[in-house]
Amino acid sequence: MANLSLSRVSQVLERFEAVEARLGATMDSTEIVKLSKERAELEPVAAVMRTLIEARREVEDLEALASDPEMGAMAKEELQALRTKLPEIERAAQLMLLPKDEAEKASAILEIRAGTGGEEAALFAGDLFKMYSRYASNRGWKVEVEDMSESDLGGYREIVASVTGEGVFGRLRFESGVHRVQRVPATETQGRVHTSAATVAVLPEAEDVDIEIRDADIRIDTFRSSGAGGQHVNKTDSAVRITHMPSGIVVTSSEKSQHQNRARAMKVLAARLYDQQRDKLDRERAADRATQVGSGDRSERIRTYNFPQGRVTDHRINLTLYNLPEVMNGTALDEVIEALLAEDQAKKLAALEGGE
Q1: Reading across the β-sheet that carries 301-306, which strands appear in turn?
Q2: 80: part of which helix (H) or strand (E)?
Q3: More confident: 191 or 138
């Protein structure tokens, strides 16, 4: 791994010191809020950079002492220990300097839709929603269903939910894509293994982002919704459908309160428009695609869940685990997510080093 250049380290420390100095001088409340946020983001980075500078200086001092008749032996021993530790400090500093995606801290909209496979695909969509719900619960996140369409056997043709918490999108962003399942469906009488699929989309919530939705650009319709087989029928036209005409995006929400449905549908619409903006930027930054684990294309098959073999395979990083039940109940999903995040960091670090 290449050493981090002194100029880059100095830039971070100089900016941190400039922000601190300005914070102590300004009386403007808006500027104070902005600078305080920047200071909070820079403080851990500056701390690692200072540790790196101190370690490098210590290496130089110990190298100078290594030839001293009295101190040489001790200096060489300390120098060897520090040289072993220094690459870890260098890596931590480089990770701190990787480009940050502000959306990583955001809550997210989770959308799961049944794909090929009929009722079995809908049941699998339901299993995926349970997996993410349990994972969210384990992390202290809140899951709230925004809209859903149930299948006859209790699965979901489509389910949309908001997942609220710190860093939701950052951990779930690589879940977008086609998830494939191989198992004997509940409807199969011959015991044959079938292959079905469901698509997952994880969109960052559009908080603190300038997403303008003009009244003239949307059409709002109300309608009477019903669940599977005519159950849970609303007696009033409380369900809401919002169509964003410039983009063609259609969002529905079908809970009991029409006012609540409109607010929820607008939140999902804002998230989809924000995601559309991000996707456009991603395409424009084609060179950056090489630093990502996945292309973000939701038609890409990303993972297979093989029930007969108890196996989960993520095709993007060639990772195979044989703990399918634990992954499906959310307790071992982090093993996949951590591997994806590590691979993404490694590729970004390689790109960073290549650019220096």
Answers
A1: 142-150, 156-164, 108-114, 194-204, 177-183, 301-306, 311-314, 319-321
A2: helix 72-96
A3: 138
Q: What is the pTM of this model?
A: 0.69
Tokens representing residue 3 in the block: 């050493």
Tell me which of 138 and 146 has the higher pLDDT: 138
**Backbone phi, psi, residue 6, to 5°:** -65, -35
Which position has the higher pLDDT, 207 or 132?
A: 132
Look up residue 147 and give its two tokens: 């809209």
Is-contact 56 87, C-beta < 8 A? no
Closest CA to 23 of 3, 9, 44, 43: 43
Residue owning tokens 């851990």: 44
The percentage of residues in the chain with a pLDDT greater than 70, rounded to a whole number, is 86
Asked whether 321 and 199 are in contact (CB, 8 A), the reply is no
What average pLDDT does the segment 213-235 reach? 67
**3-class DSSP state of 117:** coil
- For residues 165 and 107, the answer to whether their CB atoms sit within 8 Å is yes
Calculate the CA 80 to chain-centre distance.
Answer: 39
Q: Are strands 108-114 and 194-204 parallel, antiparallel or unpaired?
A: antiparallel
Nearest to 324 by CA among 131, 154, 172: 131
pLDDT higher than threshold 80 for residue 232: no
Distance, CA of 316 to CA of 335 (rounded, Å): 14
Opening angle at CA 159, ends 156 and 161, nearest 5: 150
The 10 Å Cβ neighbour count of residue 132 is 21
Q: What is the CATH number of domain 102-346?
A: 3.30.70.1660
Residue type at 27? M
Residues in the chain: 356
Rounded to 5 degrees, φ, ψ at 239 are -70, 150
pLDDT beyond 90 at 352: no
- Mean pLDDT, range 115-141, rounded to an integer: 95
